[in-house]
Structure formats: C-alpha cells, structure tokens
Design brief:
The structure holds 2 protein chains of 2 kinds.
Chain A (H helix, E strand, L loop, with lengths): L5 H12 L5 E3 L5 H5 L2 E3 L6 H14 L5 H7 E2 L1 H8 L4 H8 L3 H13 L5 E3 L1 H4 L4 H14 L10 E3 L6 H6 L6 E2 L3 E2 L3 H11 L12 H10 L4 E5 L3 H4 L3 H9 L3 E6 L11 E4 L8 E4 L4 E5 L12 H11 L9 H12 L16 E2 L24 E2 L18 E6 L24 E4 L1 H7 L6 E5 L4 E8 L7 E5 L12 E4 L6 E2 L3 E7 L2
Parallel strand pairs in A: 1-2, 3-14, 4-5, 8-9, 9-10, 15-19, 16-18
Antiparallel strand pairs in A: 6-7, 11-12, 12-13, 15-22, 16-19, 17-18, 17-22, 20-21
Helix pairs in contact in A: 3-6, 3-7, 3-9, 6-7, 12-14
Chain B lengths: L1 E6 L2 E6 L4 H7 L23 E4 L6 E2 L9 E4 L3 H16 L15 H9 L21 E3 L9 H9 L5 E4 L6 E4 L15 H5 L5 E3 L12 E6 L8 E7 L2 E7 L12 H5 L14 E4 L2 E4 L2 H19 L4 E4 L6 H15 L4 E2 L5
Parallel strand pairs in B: 1-5, 15-16
Antiparallel strand pairs in B: 1-2, 3-4, 3-5, 6-9, 7-8, 10-11, 11-12, 13-14
Helix pairs in contact in B: 2-3
Classes of the chains: A alpha/beta, B alpha+beta.
Chain lengths: ~500, ~350
C-alpha cells in the first residue's frame, strides 16, 4: 500500500498511531509489515489455505459472529465442513505461516470489530483469483465485518478510473450500472436510448479471448483505447505474436507505445488535463477532472473520436461534451448514478449508489448486513496451487507488483523526472539465494522462465524470503512480463501475474 | 452551547472548543502565526501569535489558548506588537530571508507577519545561512529560509507518517534534518512533498516550480489525480496553460490535502514533445500522417466491411482505465449500440 496507494497508506499509518491493530499477510516483508502487530509471511499462492485455516480456528473455537451469520448469511454448513478440512497444521504446512501465528491472527480478528480487509492484485492475479476474493468475503462474513463503516472487503483499485471503466460497462457482460446484457429488460432500455433495436444479448469476449481471437481470426478488427497491452500483459513474446497477427488494429493514444507499433490506424487523444470529465475512485466516489489546456496538434477527446466513428456508421449521437454524456445519458440510464450530476460534484465527489438528486451518496455498502443478493452466501472453497510451481529446472517463484516511483508501463512516468529516482528494473531476491547463487547486490543477472529471459540487476533485500523473486513491469527492458505466465482464472480471466517458476543465473 | 469571547472589545459568539486563533480567523481578525497549521493543530513554537488575555499572566499563544467564558482578549497592544516584532526580527536575522527571487514571495507567512508589523529591514545582524540541499529530485531545501517552526517535521511524522524529518542538534545549532542528517536525496525520503505544502516560508520548494511564475500570477484549478485509484483531489497552480505546481486540496475528500510523489510531481507528461498530434495511417509498414476525416472514414469503412463479411462479433475493443467515465461510456456505446457486439472489455481483470 505504501508503494501502490501511498496516500491511503498515510491514513492507515495514522490509525496505527492512534492504536489500531494491523495484520499484514504478504510474501514480502514490505514496509507495512514492519509496522504490523502481526505479520504472516505467506507463501505465494497459498491464500485460500491460510484463510481457511483462520476460519477453521474461528469455527472450532467458536469465535465467529454467530448472530451475523445466522441472520444475514446462508450456506454456513457448507463453509464449515470445508474449512474443517483445513486444520491450522494443514494451513501452516501449505502457507508457511506458523500454526501459532495462524491461531493468534484468528484470535485477534475475533477480538476486534470492525476490521477492514484490504487487498489489491495479490489476491486477484491468480488462477484462483475469484476463489481468493470469495475466501476473503467468507472470512469477513464469518466475523460479521460487513455492512459497517471501516469494515468489509476492500479491493484498492490500481488505476485512477478502473472503477469507472467497470461502472461504465467496459465489460463484456453488462450495460452501464451493471445491468446484464442477457436481460431482456435492460436490452430494451438501452435499445431505445441508443436507437438501435439490434443489441446483442450474447455476453462478449474478455481480453485474453480477444487476443487469442486475433490469431484464430475470430477477431478481425481490434480497437485498443489507451492500453499498452504489449508491455502490460503476461508473456510479452506471446502477446506480441497475437498483436502482430491482427488483421486491423486501431489505437487511441497520447504517446507512441510498444502497442501502437502494431496498429494500422492511430488516433491522437487528449490527455489528462485536456478535457473535462469524471473519474470514479476506489470508494465509488465520482470526482471531476477538468480541462486546463488545449490538446497538442490535432489531438481530440476520446468520446469525440467514438462519436465520429458512430456518425460514419449511421448514428448521430446528441451528447457533445463530457458533461452532456454524463448528465443526459449515464446518470439517466444507470440508476446507481441517477442523483449524480456535474452540478453536484463541483467540489467533493459523490459515492454511488446515489439514486436521486437529493441522495447524499453511500459511504459503505451492505448496511445492516443487507447484501445486494439478499443473504450473504458462503462458498466452500478449496485451495489450489498456482498453475506453475518451482521445480528442479526453475527452482524459484516469481511474483510481481508495482513500485512507488513509477506507474505501470511508464507511458506517463518516464516523462516527468521519476527516472532520476528509479532508472531501471531490478530482480529483488533474498540474501540466502544471493549467497547460494554467488550474486552481489547490483550485479546483472539473467532471470528466465519457460516463456522468456530478461537481463536485470539483482537487488538483494531483507524484504524477500528465500525462494522468491519479485519484479515489476515498469521498464520494457527487464519487464517481468517477459517471464509471467499467461494462464488465467477460468471465470474472471485474470492472469496469474503473481506466481510463476523462474531461475536466476549469473551473467557471464 | 454558545460561548462568548471579547476580542479587541468586539463581542464574538462561537460554538464548541476552539482556540483564540481559530476564533479570530473565523471572524477575520488577523493574528500572524507561523508554526500553526490547521491540519497540525497548536504547536506553540514560534510565539508570533501571542495576545493579551485579561487576568492571565504574560502573553498567551493564541494558537494554543482556549478562552474561558467571556474572556477579554487584546490582539494589538503595544506589548503584543513589541513581542511579535522581536520574534519576527530574530527570525529574519537568522538566515537568508531575501524575498526578491523567492518562489513563495507573495504567499509567505513570514513575509505577511513582517508586513503586518512594518518591518522593512531586520533589526539584528543577519547570520550566514547554511547551504541549500539540492539532492532531492523534486524538493529543494533551503535551510537559510527555515524558521524552525516544525510544521514539516510534524507533517512528515504525524500526517503522512514517513518519519524522515526531525530536528537535529541543540540550541542555536538546531536545524531540520533528514534521517541522521544526510542529504535529502540520499535519505529515506519518498518525495511526497507534504513538507513543501506545509512550509510557511520558502525553505522547502518544489524544484519544478522554480522560475515558472510569481505566486500572484497563478490561478488554481481543482481536479482529480491521474494515477492510482485513491482519487486524490489536486489543486493545480496554473500560469496560463502551464502547471506551475501541484498541491493537495486541503479539507477535500478523500485525501484531505495529502499527495504522493506521482500525484504532486508526475504531471508534466502532458507537455511532452513526444505526444501524438495527428492521426496516423500505416502504409507499407510505415506510419504516415493523415487528416481526421481520412482516418475516421478508413476506420469506419473497415469496421463496416468486417461486420458485413463476418458479423459484429468479429470486432473487439479494450477500453481505458486511465481515461474518463465519459470516454469509456462512449466506447462501449459504439461497440454495443453501433457495431452490435458486447466484445468490449478493459484491464480491470488484470
């Protein structure tokens, strides 16, 4: 959190000064771990076993919130019988977290309410990502940590508007405001609003399937808006093959990127500060962004580019500014934003759901244990290991993430002076592995997986336990995604960026 | 419960537990202050905000005094002015408080206090200032302008809890240090810039702002940070169409004025000469510039052709989690409402 969401971490650290308790579960002994009351240095990819172990203690020692579970949840018995298979001993064996620590964490959690669970991609970027998320939800429901302020399951969103892109339905299964594309009612509503009766009821493709489709020609025209897939997706060599086989690729971008190389047409877009609009943050707060300068050259707002393509295909869209799009379309078509209008978010933004113009917005969800589906549904979940684990040939596990001084593929942060602080990628390794391999801090090494190799400086650090290598994907050279495994959670299609097997060799 | 206080003979009613300085500010009564910042609360370090309170011995720091009911307070007596003058004179002689090219000229609390007290030239001999620390990538430290108010230290330790800054040494040697008095650029400082935002003078400066504008030439625009999902509220200090510097919007949700290194200093990519400025069409493997009409016609034509030949589901799109809601909305509307496919996604799943 200190690296990827620094400002959120200030508030956490302040709470600790006021006496809040912190439990950190992380394969790395990261900066917050040193401040934690309890730190579980978990093995990469063992989250479910660990969480089931905690729930095992809570249930066998009768420490869970029985009232919350009885009144607000269902399928408790299924959860119970599953987690009973995960004794603290078994959880400890899989996760590497000592038995006593598992018990102590369970006891601490049972003694404090509310407790909030925060995570980022360490939970989701696994082949069992969805199950990881549901296990966190299981734990929080079992503890009754739902529907309260400062409780709940809190994924910290990585990008400024990843929440908004979901809300706006840049997703294959829903219309704006999470209205299913398979629903007749929703289809009729949007068909009428958009003047096209032939909307598809078929759930669309996810990114990995689109990319695979480029090779099989199931996808003939591909449109990439502001994403640098050639650096950000797992297994770069494979991704570039897919992009290279695109029959017709269009990009909207603010800079030439590794991805625009593959395009047939590139449209120049306005950047942040060159158009009005809104971003929605991790708290579901819709905030204003404002135009402060003209775009360079002929660059145009992205909404305008899409509108102009629509016009050439027979649809003349009325809205002609970001405000008109929001006030006249988004907030009219998506009930959760019905009460959010530009005039109301001049200063602080509003948190959806905000159905009416006199609604104050919603600070936290599931108030009084009322879940969107009715009762909170426990899921019995088994631990599954990462798709690729260390073996004789590739004896180390690679996990990936972000560093404070850069942002993603550096399209923006390579141009603001941050390279002066962090100028290249490193492979972070333990003292034990460095010694074993005869590697000095700062020495160039080759890190290889079954998919590729990168030459990168070794950073020997106490943050990393033996057996683990940790890297980011900010730099094209030494990018972890030459190594990462393009295997996906079967349902969410999230790639397993957080776990694959690698080896490290000295550069001769 | 409504409470009463008399400031310079004026009856003021207020609610809650408030300090004299807070009450005075709410009522537009100027009391100079240096070490006090609303985010940090009373510090009682600088003694510039002293006032006379009837029945209390000595002068009271208004930033730390909660008045008794009906207290009579004087902010402008000779005794008060003399005390303030002495403090400000001492501060002015303790370093290089030369406003001519100072970045905060016009937005400096020491300058305001000196102006209020009518001090043109410091009354005491000026000490030789320490050298500037230019080692931080984004932050310049000028100990010659430091008044040792401690706001940067409090902010670093109590607000952002990065725990880098502290007072070092004693007595007349006291100064603000990074870690164990090493240059900022070699310290554990992460260049979040909270200290710069809290500094009442020009001792901590955003390097990127140097020479860009006088403070009175800028106007501010509130916006949302383009980096992570926290959604920090930024105040952009603009001179014409150039961002001079960035501060966090105090009192705004969710960040309450705090920023990180990327939010505060990562803004100038928009001015980069590498920006794409014309539509590009690839011909024989090489991009050439094109007009909007040509490029848009080409794309719309090709998409129409693909739909006719193999159906809308052979088109697919990836939207952008960095751009605005309105942009993403229009992109999915294009795919669903015009092409007729739900093949639209973005990187939320990665």
């Amino acid at each position: 959190m200190t690296e990827a969401h620094p400002v959120a971490s200030y508030f956490l650290k302040r709470a600790l000064k006021k006496g809040a308790k912190l439990i950190v579960v992380d394969p790395r002994n990261q900066p917050l771990a040193t401040r934690a009351d309890l730190f579980a240095q978990i093995k990469v990819g063992s989250d479910i076993a660990f969480l089931n172990g905690l729930m095992n203690v809570l249930i066998t020692e009768d420490l869970y919130d029985k009232k919350f579970v009885e009144e607000n949840c269902e399928d408790f018995e299924a959860l119970k019988s599953k987690v009973l298979e995960y004794s603290p001993e078994k959880a400890a064996e899989i996760s590497g977290v000592p038995i006593e620590l598992i018990k102590e964490i369970a006891h601490t959690l049972a003694s404090i309410k509310p407790a909030m669970a925060c995570y980022t991609l360490g939970i989701t970027e696994h082949t069992c990502g969805k199950n990881n998320v549901m296990s966190v939800a299981n734990l929080q429901m079992l503890l009754g940590n739902m529907g309260l302020e400062s409780a709940g399951v809190n994924p910290l969103r990585g990008q400024n508007n990843v929440q908004g892109a979901c809300d706006m339905a840049a997703l294959p299964n829903v219309y704006p405001g999470y209205q299913a594309v398979t629903s007749k009612e929703s289809k009729e509503k949007f068909a009428k609003a958009w003047g096209n009766p032939n909307l598809s009821e078929k759930v669309g493709l996810t990114i990995p399937d689109m990319m695979a489709g480029l090779v099989t020609k199931k996808v003939r025209g591909f449109y990439i808006f502001g994403e640098n897939l050639a650096n950000s997706e797992p297994n770069i060599a494979h991704v570039e093959k897919e992009l290279a086989s695109a029959e017709f690729l269009v990009c909207n971008e603010i800079f030439p990127t590794e991805t625009t190389r593959f395009a047939h047409v590139v449209f120049p877009s306005t950047a942040w500060g060159e158009d009005d609009g809104t971003f929605t943050n991790s708290e579901r707060r819709v905030n204003r962004v404002r135009k402060i300068k003209e775009a360079p050259g002929m660059a145009k707002p992205d909404w305008w580019i899409f509108k102009e393509i629509a016009k050439r295909m027979g649809y003349d869209w009325e809205s002609n500014s970001a405000q008109e799009i929001w006030d006249n379309e988004v907030s009219v078509l998506a009930p959760a934003y019905g009460g959010i209008k530009y005039s109301r978010i001049e200063k602080d933004g509003l948190q959806w759901p905000c159905p009416t113009v006199d609604h104050p917005g919603t600070k936290f969800l599931h108030k009084e244990g009322k879940f969107s589906r009715g009762k909170g549904l426990f899921k019995a979940i088994d631990w599954t290991p990462p798709a690729e684990v260390a073996d004789n040939e590739y004896p180390l596990m690679l996990s990936t993430g972000r560093r404070l001084f850069h942002y993603h593929t550096r399209t923006q942060t390579s141009r603001v002076g941050l390279d002066q602080i962090l100028s290249e990628e490193t492979a972070d390794i333990s003292f034990a592995d460095a010694e074993h391999l005869g590697i000095e801090n700062g020495e160039y090494v080759m890190v290889s997986s079954r998919r590729g190799s990168v030459k990168v400086k070794a950073r020997v650090t106490e943050q990393i336990p033996p057996g683990l290598v940790w890297m980011a994907f900010h730099f094209r050279e030494g990018n972890a995604n030459w190594l990462t495994n393009n295997v996906f959670d079967p349902e969410t299609k999230t790639a397993e960026y957080k776990a694959c097997a690698v080896k490290i060799e000295k550069v001769k | 419960m409504t409470k009463t206080v008399f400031i310079d003979g004026k009856k003021i009613e207020y609610e809650g537990n408030k300090t004299l300085l807070e009450i005075a500010r709410e009522n537009n009564i100027y009391i100079p202050s240096l070490c006090y910042h609303p985010k940090l609360g009373p510090a009682s370090m600088c003694r510039v905000c002293v006032v006379e309170v009837e029945g209390m011995r000595g002068l009271q720091p208004s930033c730390a005094t909660i008045p008794a009911e009906g207290a009579k307070v004087l902010t402008n007596t000779e005794r008060v002015i003399e005390a303030r003058k002495t403090v400000v004179n001492l501060l002015l002689s303790n370093g290089n408080h030369n406003c001519l090219s100072c970045e905060v000229n016009g937005d400096c609390e020491l300058q305001d206090a000196a102006y209020h007290l009518g001090i043109e030239i410091p009354a005491f001999l000026i000490e030789q200032p320490e050298e500037r620390d230019e080692s931080g990538v984004f932050i310049l430290r000028d100990p010659g302008k430091c008044i040792k108010c401690g706001r940067c230290i409090e902010g670093c330790n109590r607000l952002v809890v990065n725990e880098v800054l502290d007072f070092g040494y004693r007595g007349g040697e006291i100064k603000v240090i990074c870690d164990n008095d090493i240059p900022m650029g070699e310290s554990t400082c992460v260049q979040c810039g909270e200290c710069v935002q809290l500094c009442p003078v020009g001792a901590l400066i955003d390097k990127k702002a140097i020479g860009k504008a006088r403070t009175w030439e800028t106007h501010t625009v509130r916006t949302t940070c383009p980096y992570c999902g926290v959604g920090c509220q930024l105040e952009l200090h603009m001179k014409e169409d150039q961002i001079v510097r960035v501060t966090g919007v105090e009192d705004a949700q969710p960040n309450q004025g705090h920023l990180c290194v990327k939010g505060r200093y990562g803004y100038d990519f928009i001015y980069s000469g590498d920006r794409l400025t014309t539509p590009l069409i690839k011909e024989n493997g090489v991009f050439r510039e094109a007009s909007w009409n040509e490029a848009l016609d080409l794309v719309a034509g090709k998409f129409k052709q693909i739909i006719q030949e193999s159906g809308p589901d052979t088109l697919a799109g990836v939207s952008c989690a960095r751009s605005s809601n309105e942009d993403s909305y229009n992109m999915q509307k294009l795919f669903r409402g015009v092409f007729g496919t739900n093949n639209i996604d973005h990187c939320a799943r990665t």
